[in-house]
Design a protein that fits this description.
Keywords: Cell membrane, Membrane, Transmembrane, Transmembrane helix, Transport
CATH superfamily of one domain: MetI-like
Number of strands: 2
Membrane topology: Multi-pass membrane protein
Distance between the termini: 117 Å
Shape: flat
Protein name: Sugar ABC transporter permease
Subcellular location: Cell membrane
Pfam families: BPD_transp_1
CATH topology of one domain: MetI-like fold
Largest sheet: 2 strands, antiparallel
Number of helices: 14
Radius of gyration: 33 Å
């Protein structure tokens, strides 16, 4: 019997295939996008975040800007609360803020309503009312300084022409405040009017047509429809006017100089901050004044929101109570 030899199978040579490349992580994928937006964050960290954090740090130190810092803790803030000049600057700022903000917002609302109802030259009037906001504030203050001048002012010349005794605007406390408030009002009334106009254009005409059908007069339409529907816009303008009004500096500085006028009648909070930090070289105390101003702005912004923006919540609560009371009375019957 023949023996047949079987050939052994040749070993199959297998070469290991290279592993697929590992996909890049999410951070590596987004690295080009992060690199594209990094200049903004770098500049913000250097010129925005660092000065804010550093101002907090130096507010707890006594520092003249050059020498060694000395830790004093809360002494700057305790002295601030007992500083009569600081409280005088707060009083001056609040009076100027009220004298400028209240007429400014009312006048801006009236102008916006007139522009909204105008049929001719609407674009021209928008540009004309907005020009004061983009004009140099230093130049505007110098012009108003000549208008309110005690001896040769145009306002006193007008008053004398109608038989009224001239007023020492830039030497009397109330005259100084009225002069500064007038400059602020003239500069910002057009800006707020444009914002109000944008809010008016967002209100549907169907609402006004329905009011006309119901027999509402123009005055009733304005106070019962326009003003309530403009409440978010009014809140925005009130908050921004509060922030800007409590930071008044250029008008007082250009009009009255570093002293703030006779007796400091025109010295605002920022003017006192400037005097303490850059004239008296008390940078720690100036930083404390700045953070006190920040707290005031937050408090007054909250007050504005409660008085203006909180009306919607109060109305909703009243409506809910009425509905609940109606259901209880219906169940009782």
């Amino acid at each position: 019997m023949a023996v047949t030899s079987k050939t052994l199978p040749t070993a199959v040579s297998t070469t290991a295939e290279p592993a697929p490349p590992k996909p890049p992580g999410r951070f590596r994928q987004a690295l080009p996008q992060y690199a594209a937006i990094s200049p903004f964050f770098i500049l913000f960290a250097i010129f925005g975040a660092f000065p804010v954090l550093f101002s907090i740090w130096i507010s707890f130190h006594s520092w003249d800007g050059i020498g060694e810092m000395k830790w004093v803790g809360l002494e700057q803030y305790s002295y601030l609360l007992a500083d009569p000049k600081f409280w005088q600057s707060i009083g001056n700022t609040l009076i100027i803020w009220v004298l400028s903000t209240v007429p400014m917002l009312l006048l801006a609302l009236v102008i916006a309503n007139a522009l909204h109802n105008a049929t001719r030259f609407r674009s021209f009037y928008r540009i004309a009312y907005f020009i004061p906001n983009v004009t140099s504030i230093v130049a505007v203050t110098m012009v108003f300084g000549s208008i309110f001048s005690n001896n040769f002012g145009l306002l006193n010349a007008f008053l004398q022409s109608i038989g009224v005794t001239k007023i020492e605007w830039l030497t009397q406390p109330w005259g100084i405040k009225i002069a500064i408030a007038t400059i602020v009002t003239w500069r910002w009334v057009g800006y707020n009017a444009i914002i109000f106009l944008a809010g008016l254009q967002a209100i549907s005409n169907d609402v006004y047509e329905a009011a006309k059908v119901d027999g509402a007069s123009p005055r009733q339409t304005f106070w019962r429809i326009t003003v309530p529907l403009l409440r978010p816009v009014i809140l925005f303008t009130a908050v921004t006017s509060t922030i800007g009004g409590l930071q008044i500096f250029t008008e007082s500085q250009v009009l009255l100089g570093d002293t703030g006028g006779p007796g400091g009648s025109g010295m605002t909070i920022v003017s006192y901050l400037y005097e303490s930090a850059f004239l008296d070289n008390q940078f720690g105390y100036g930083a404390a004044i700045g953070w006190a101003l920040f707290i005031l702005i937050v408090l007054f912004s909250i007050v504005n929101w409660r008085l203006i923006g909180g009306g919607d919540e109060r109305t909703a609560r009243r409506t809910a109570r009425r509905v609940a009371t109606g259901k209880e009375n219906a169940d009782a019957r």
